[in-house]
UniProtKB/TrEMBL annotation:
Official protein name in the record: Sardh protein
InterPro entries, A to Z: FAD-dep_OxRdtase (IPR006076), FAD/NAD-bd_sf (IPR036188), FAO_M (IPR032503), GcvT/YgfZ/DmdA (IPR028896), GCVT_N (IPR006222), TrmE/GcvT-like (IPR027266)
Gene3D superfamilies: Aminomethyltransferase beta-barrel domains (3.30.70.1400), D-Amino Acid Oxidase, subunit A, domain 2 (3.30.9.10), FAD/NAD(P)-binding domain (3.50.50.60), Probable tRNA modification gtpase trme, domain 1 (3.30.1360.120)
Taxonomy, superkingdom: Eukaryota
Originating gene: Sardh
Length: 684
């Protein structure tokens, strides 16, 4: 950018993290190791080495630090000027003091007769109407207002976020690195001979009444809120106690429930893209977000894996719950600098979405009731977290110091918190023994998983066969009704946008239709992707979301067939229901669809059951399992998501977004077997 515009905005003054406990230093060492992979130079430092790098810091209470000399500082004014200059150079325009006053959308029907909505035009405060199929919502703290113009919702909250610029400090100079003390939740950035100091408070200030006219303004600093940070600044850099404050910067900024931006196409509204929710990282992330969003708009997919930023990572029901968004955003803000442990669990907003089996599992005293949560996935199964709706919600809020919950006693035993804290380790978490038992049941007997959070979609229509063959990397053409196929859905570069199972079924009139089962965390994105492809290719087919209406009880393990055979007259043998086969049958008098599939590498069956019959089907499975256990000593038990993770990793089965993504082709990701026969047969 500097080369193109001759505007300098980057100062490479380095970055220094200091840690005040052993776990933090362990986290920093992990950062340093990860940095090597990305070619980022960093050095783990002893306390005295920290002092050499930044002589103004107090070091008698630290364990050490990590120093990255290539880190630095972006000057916001210069970088914005550089972007503006560069955009003009390439034919773009910058128009100041013109507001978007409205956005026109239109309804339409796809070739498959599915109803759709798309962007038509933007209305501006100067009276000009701009016809366009594409709008990018990059309005920061005002992004909700833009979304509301088209009846859309996004999980974003505006807050007042602050930092303070100190008077000049003796010994400060522009070569000293920016400092973060994550344990004190503060940063101290170099600004010539001064410091810009800020942090993340436990009690951040929301900005609920966002003022559309508040542009380029600042709020008055609330020292009651910011005071928490000042205590940390003075502890880390004692000279600050005697230093005056030159100015304060308290500005509007947008925050999200997981402290990551909102990017990409808005599900259900064609042409609306988001680039907002920067969680006080917009300067750092803006360049990359802009680059990838351009590719997303032009080609339908970014070139790097941006699922963590994709606005479709949130379930629409969570997005629609203002309380969930607020509480989780509050927690994420307060935990900005918390150590991220491998099994970190959020406290706020738990239990807002639940499986149809939730109450049943809880009443059985099970430790695995499913709490649909962030990303629509179950975050609690497999753990001894069962107090979701017995106060954990409020405890979480109390922990964050929310004024809404002043009556919650602070010094009594909080079982949920104790359980959560048992997970906060880089070592084996407290739940490890439970997960191990679940894994053993899956390998030696039967494990019963509630995977109801999966996305479940039906694709039908006169061109359903052609549409599925086009969508799927695997060869579906010629497959018999009653077959299940694990397949990637690829983008135009061959990258894997989704991996899921497709079951071919036939209705009473002999027409084929298809049942898609997709991972819960990606279900919203996968559905949007399928809808877009159907529409772009003008297929006379449509896809219907039945995720909430169906549950998925997965019965896995070497004795799973015997267990299920005892519940049905339908033949469950290998001949009648081979691997990758499907059939309709009845259990406990309830019709359901059984797929013979496994994601744990065992003999296994998925029971896709209407939600209203889920409890009775589950009870029947449990009773049959109890008999097997009593008579033959076979281990049969409920199991959860961590067991699935462990079991599937043992068998080298892939997880989308972890082991393969939109930037890997099936061949690169080691699932070439899914696409080779189609490639050989059709050449594409
Ligand atoms: C105290 C503080 C410290 C920070 N420190 C850092 C840091 O160290 N590193 C970092 O990377 N980031 C930092 N940030 C965050 C960074 O400033 C933001 O993430 C970034 O500015 C967000 O950019 P944006 O374009 O998304 O939103 P904004 O910069 O807020 O821009 C949104 C624009 O949309 C306009 N708008 C609103 N409604 C309409 C409408 N109807 N029509 C037209 N325009 C409209 C607004 O007027 C505004 O100009 C900090 C922020 C604060 C407040």
């Amino acid at each position: 950018l500097e080369e193109e515009t001759e505007i300098a905005s980057w100062t490479e003054n380095g970055g220094l993290f200091v840690g005040t406990n052993a776990e933090r230093l362990a986290e920093y060492k992990r950062f340093a190791e990860t940095g090597k992979y990305f070619g980022i130079e960093s050095h783990v430092l002893s306390p005295s080495e920290v002092k050499e790098v930044h002589p103004l810091l107090r070091i008698d209470d630290i364990y050490g630090g990590v120093y990255s000399p290539g880190d630095g500082t972006i000057d916001p004014t210069s970088v914005c000027n550089a972007y503006a200059k560069a955009s003009r150079k390439f034919g773009g325009g910058v128009y100041e003091n013109v507001g978007v006053s409205g956005i026109e959308v239109e309804d339409y029907l796809t070739a498959g007769s599915a109803p759709g909505r798309r962007i038509k035009a933007v209305l501006t405060s100067c009276g000009k109407r701009i016809e366009t199929p594409t709008v990018v919502n990059a309005c920061g703290a005002w992004a909700n207002e833009i979304a509301a113009m088209v009846g859309a919702q996004i999980p974003l909250k505006a807050m007042k976020h602050a930092m303070v610029l100190t008077e000049p400090i003796a010994g400060m100079h522009s070569g000293l690195p920016n400092v973060r003390d994550h344990d004190l939740s503060v940063y101290l950035k170099t600004q010539g001979d001064s410091m810009a100091i800020g942090g993340y408070e436990q009690n951040p200030e929301f900005w609920p009444d966002v003022d559309p006219g508040f542009a380029f303004g600042l709020f008055e600093l609330d020292y009651d809120t910011f005071g928490q940070n000042l205590a940390g600044h003075m502890q880390r850099c004692p000279v600050i106690e005697e230093t005056g404050i030159k100015s304060t910067v308290c500005g509007p900024e947008s925050f999200t429930p997981d402290h990551k931006p909102l990017m990409g196409p808005h599900p259900g509204l064609r042409g609306l893209f988001h680039a907002c929710g920067f969680n006080s990282m917009g300067l750092m992330l803006g360049g990359g977000v802009g680059r990838e969003l351009t590719k997303w708009i032009l080609t339908g997919s970014p070139e790097v894996d941006l699922f963590s930023f994709d606005c479709a990572r949130f379930h629409p029901e969570s997005v629609a719950s203002s309380r969930w968004v607020r509480d989780r955003t509050h927690e994420s803000y307060a935990k900005t600098y918390a150590i991220v442990f491998p099994h970190d669990e959020a406290l706020a907003g738990r239990g807002s979405r639940k499986s149809a089996l939730y109450d049943e599992l809880k009443s059985r005293g099970s430790k695995e009731p499913l709490d649909y949560d962030l990303y629509g996935a179950c975050a609690e199964s497999g753990l001894a977290f069962w107090l979701v709706d017995q106060g954990a919600y409020e405890e979480g809020a109390w922990r964050l110091g929310e004024a809404d919950h002043p009556d919650i006693p602070k010094h009594q035993s909080h079982e949920y918190l104790d359980l959560v804290e048992g997970e906060l380790t880089f070592d084996w978490p407290a739940s490890h023994a439970t997960v191990a038992e679940e894994c053993r049941a899956a390998r030696e007997g039967v494990a019963i998983f509630d995977q109801s959070y999966f996305g479940k979609f039906y694709l039908s229509g006169p061109e359903a066969d052609e549409a599925v063959q086009y969508l799927c990397g695997a060869d579906i053409e010629g497959k018999r009704a009653g077959s299940v196929t694990y397949t990637p859905l690829c983008n135009s570069r061959g990258g894997v946008e989704a991996d899921l199972t497709v079951t071919k079924l036939q209705d009473s009139a002999g027409s084929n239709y298809y049942y898609f089962a997709a991972g819960g965390n990606t279900a919203t994105k996968d559905l949007a992707w399928i809808r877009k492809v159907l529409e772009d290719q003008n297929f006379k087919a449509q896809i219907e979301d039945q995720s909430e209406a169906m549950t998925l009880i997965s019965v896995q393990g070497p004795s799973s067939r015997r267990l299920l055979q005892s519940l049905t007259h339908s033949d469950m043998s290998d001949e009648s229901l081979p691997f990758s086969g499907a059939k309709h049958l009845e259990i406990a008098g309830h019709p359901l669809l059984v797929l013979r599939l496994t994601f744990v590498g065992e003999l296994g069956f998925e029971l896709h059951t209407p939600a209203e019959s889920a409890v009775e089907v589950y009870r029947a499975v449990q009773e049959a399992g109890a008999k097997l256990s009593q008579l033959e000593g076979i281990p049969v038990r409920d199991a959860g998501y961590r067991a699935i993770d462990s079991l599937s990793a043992e068998k080298n089965l892939r997880h989308w977004h972890a082991d393969l993504s939109n930037r890997d082709t099936p061949l690169e990701a080691g699932i070439g077997f899914t696409v080779l026969s189609k490639l050989k047969r059709t050449g594409s």
